[in-house]
Write a structure and sequence with these properties.
Largest sheet: 8 strands, antiparallel
Strand content: 15-25%
Number of helices: 12
Helix content: 25-40%
CATH superfamily of the largest domain: FAD/NAD(P)-binding domain
Distance between the termini: 21 Å
Bound molecules: flavin-adenine dinucleotide
Radius of gyration: 22 Å
CATH topology of the largest domain: FAD/NAD(P)-binding domain
CATH class of the largest domain: Alpha Beta
Shape: globular
Length: about 500
C-alpha cells in the first residue's frame, strides 16, 4: 500500500479478534485493509515457516510472549502470558473452546447493548465454530488422566454433558471441544487470514508496533507506528483497534483517550476523557491442587503416547457451582498433566479451580517509562474467595475419590501447618489467562468506552474489537467468545 493511496481501514493487532476483523473486511471486494501486528507473520498454514511449538497443540508454548507482569493478591508478582505473533493468544493457548451461558449475554442485551443477546449471537458462534474448525476428541483419543477425571466427576454427581459448546448448559463434565486439527493448534490466522491472503485486499505489516492513533478534532486521521526502527504515520480515517485486553487500553491512553489523571501522568494531551479506559480489569482467578503423578499414571501416559503418537496435556473440563452462584454454574475445574522437574516421577498432575464470575475489579496502568502494569485485583472481593473455597472443596473430593487417587502421588503445594485456606489462596493463586473489560461496551457515564458496535465514544472512525470490550468476561474460556466479538463487530462496520 503506497503512501499516496491510504488504506480504507487499518486494523491494529493481528490477534484472535484482529484476524477475524481483518479477514472479514478483506473478503469485501471494495475494501483495502492494512493489518499491523507487533509480532511476526509466518505466512499461511502451508508456508512451512511456522515454528513447531506454535503448531503443537499438546502443550502451551511461551516462545512469543509479551512478558507482562503484575501483582497477585499478596506480595508476589505474576506473569501474564500474551502472544506477540499473528493469531495472538489463539496461537499459543490451550485450544479449549467453550461458549458460556446465555444469561450473561442476555443481561448485556437487557442493559442496552443491542445485538448481544444469546439469540443474536448464535449465528456468530456458529460461524466462529466453523472457521476455527472446532471438533471433539473421539472417546478413544481421551488420555487416561482425563478419562479418570470424567469418571471421578460422575461419581461425585456431576453429570456427563456434551454442552460446553451450547449457551444453555448447566453443571456437567465433558471432554472439551477443541480447535485442534491433526495435532495442530488451529489459530485465528489460519482460520480468517489464510482464506484472504491471495485476494489482494489485505496487506500485513508484521513486526510493526502501533504507538498511537492520531486524532484531530474528534476524528481519526492516522496511526503512528514504528517499523524497522523508523517512526511514521499511516494516514487513514478508519481504525479497528484489536490489541487485546492489555494492548488496547494502552494504545487508547497513548492516543489521548482515557482518564485525565492517567493521560496527565503520561504527558499526553486529552482528546476524549473516558474514565473507563484501563478500568474494570478482571480475570478468572485460579487455584491449583498440584500432585506428583503416580508411577501408575506415568505408565498409563507413556502407553497412551506410544499408541497415539502424542499426549494431549489438557482435555477434560467440569462446570460446577459454588453456594453463591448466580446462574447455573460459576466455576471451572480443568485438570492437566505436565512434565515437572520437582516431581519424583518427572510428571505432575494439576487440578485447577477457577471462578468464572469474579466480582473483583482492578485497573491497568501505563507507566511514564512505557511499562504496562495490569493489576487485576485478584481475590479482592471476599465473595470471590468464598466461591473459590467451595470449588476447592469439590476438587479435593474429586482427587480423594477412587478414580483419581491411585493416579496422584504426594501433594506438591500443600497448605502449611496452621495456614488457613485464605492465606494459602493468597500465597499460591494464579489465573486462567482470561483478562478482559478494559475498554468495555456501555455508556460513558457508567464506565463504558465504546457502544454496542465497538465505536469509541466521542471519536469518529475508531472501533474496538477484542477481549477489552467485554463488560464482564464470559462464563467460559473466552477464545471462541472473542472470535464472536470479531464477527459481531465487523458485521456492523461499514
Ligand atoms: C497461555 C494461554 C492459554 C489460554 N488458553 C485458552 C483456552 O484453552 N481456551 C480459551 O478459550 N481461551 C484461552 N486463553 C485465552 C484466549 O486465548 C484469549 O482470551 C483471547 O485469545 C484474546 O484475544 P484478543 O483478540 O483479545 O487478544 P490477542 O489474541 O492477545 O491479540 C492481540 C494482538 O494484538 C497485538 N498487539 C498488541 N499491541 C500491539 C501494538 N502496539 N501494535 C501492534 N500489535 C499489537 C498482539 O501481538 C496480539 O497479536 C488462553 C490464553 C493464554 C495466554
Amino acid at each position: 500500500m503506497s503512501s499516496s493511496s491510504p488504506p480504507d481501514v487499518v486494523v491494529i493487532g493481528g490477534g484472535t479478534a484482529g484476524c477475524v476483523v481483518a479477514g472479514r473486511l478483506a473478503e469485501r471486494a471494495d475494501r483495502r485493509v492494512l493489518l499491523i501486528e507487533a509480532g511476526p507473520d509466518y505466512g499461511s498454514r502451508t508456508s512451512g515457516r511456522w515454528p513447531s511449538d506454535l503448531l503443537d497443540a499438546s502443550t502451551l508454548p511461551t516462545s512469543h510472549d509479551w512478558g507482562y507482569r503484575g501483582p497477585a493478591a499478596g506480595e508476589r508478582a505474576l506473569a501474564f502470558d500474551r502472544a506477540r505473533v499473528m493469531g495472538g493468544c489463539s496461537t499459543h493457548n490451550g485450544c479449549t473452546q467453550s461458549w458460556g451461558w446465555s444469561g450473561d449475554y442476555d443481561r448485556w442485551a437487557a442493559s442496552g447493548l443491542v445485538g448481544w443477546s444469546a439469540t443474536d449471537l448464535l449465528p456468530h458462534f456458529d460461524a466462529a465454530t466453523e472457521r476455527m474448525r472446532v471438533n471433539r476428541f473421539a472417546e478413544s483419543e481421551v488420555q487416561p488422566f482425563h478419562r479418570a477425571f470424567v469418571d471421578a466427576c460422575q461419581a461425585e454427581g456431576i453429570p456427563r454433558a456434551a454442552d460446553l459448546d451450547s449457551l444453555d448448559g448447566g453443571i456437567g463434565v465433558d471432554v472439551s471441544p477443541v480447535n485442534i486439527v491433526d495435532g495442530v493448534r488451529w489459530n485465528a490466522s489460519f482460520a480468517y487470514i489464510d482464506p484472504v491472503r491471495e485476494l489482494g485486499h489485505l496487506e500485513i505489516w508484521h513486526d510493526t508496533s502501533a504507538l498511537r492513533i492520531v486524532i484531530k478534532s474528534g476524528r481519526v486521521t492516522g496511526v503512528e507506528i514504528i517499523k524497522d526502527s523508523v517512526m511514521t504515520v499511516v494516514s487513514c480515517d478508519q481504525v479497528a483497534l484489536c490489541a487485546g485486553a492489555y494492548g488496547t487500553p494502552e494504545i487508547l491512553m497513548r492516543s489521548g483517550i482515557g482518564r485525565s489523571e492517567d493521560l496527565a501522568s503520561l504527558g499526553v494531551e486529552t482528546q476524549v476523557e473516558l474514565g473507563g479506559v484501563g478500568g474494570n480489569l478482571h480475570d478468572h482467578p485460579a487455584v491449583t491442587l498440584e500432585f506428583d503423578a503416580s508411577s501408575e499414571l506415568v505408565k498409563q501416559l507413556d502407553a497412551f503416547r506410544v499408541e497415539h503418537g502424542w499426549l494431549p496435556e489438557e482435555q477434560a473440563l467440569a462446570k460446577v457451582s459454588s453456594a453463591s452462584s448466580h446462574g447455573p454454574f460459576d466455576l471451572h475445574i480443568y485438570p492437566w498433566v505436565e512434565p515437572r522437574p520437582d516431581s519424583t516421577t518427572g510428571w505432575a498432575a494439576i487440578v485447577p479451580v477457577s471462578l468464572l464470575t469474579p466480582a473483583s475489579r482492578g485497573r491497568l496502568r501505563v507507566g511514564p517509562d512505557g511499562g504496562v502494569v495490569p493489576n487485576h485485583a485478584y481475590l479482592a472481593a471476599p465473595s470471590d474467595r468464598a466461591s473459590m473455597a467451595d470449588g476447592l472443596a469439590t476438587a479435593q473430593r474429586l482427587c480423594a475419590g477412587d478414580q483419581l487417587a491411585p493416579l496422584l502421588g504426594t501433594r506438591l503445594n500443600p497448605q502449611q501447618p496452621d495456614e488457613g485456606i485464605d492465606s494459602w489462596m493468597t500465597r499460591t493463586h494464579s489465573h486462567y489467562w482470561h483478562p478482559a473489560g478494559t475498554a468495555a461496551m456501555g455508556p460513558a457515564e457508567r464506565g463504558g468506552v465504546c457502544d454496542a458496535d465497538g465505536k469509541v465514544h466521542g471519536v469518529v472512525g475508531l472501533t474496538l474489537a477484542d477481549a477489552s470490550i467485554f463488560p464482564e468476561v464470559p462464563r467460559s474460556t473466552p477464545a471462541l467468545p472473542v472470535v464472536v466479538v470479531g464477527e459481531r463487530i465487523v458485521s456492523s462496520m461499514k
